[in-house]
Amino acid sequence: MKLLNLLPFVLFLAGFGCSSTPAPKAALRQYPMHGQVEKLDAVARVATIKHEKIGDWMDAMTMDFPVRDAAQFAKLKVGEKIAATVYVQDIDFWIGNIRVEPDATPGGRKR
Question: Is 85 a residue whose pLDDT tops 50?
């Protein structure tokens, strides 16, 4: 019987930290990126890219980047050098505005 008396208090505490309005998202940041496609996962639409330093966001390294747009992902080929835009919002990031960079050799590929 005493447990039932505690029920309203427990429910009050459970809802105390919850907010009915979600926190606002951080501003969308954009960074130019240059790198080389190392691997592609077509099912997850993720490109592994060895990239140069990306502004004040990321040092040069090889990492996975989600590609939200299927047509943008279709542009990618393993081994190609690309330029793209990295979009960052809160902890989410992805790439878009993907452009294949021409080879330095004469007659190099260009899109």
Answer: yes
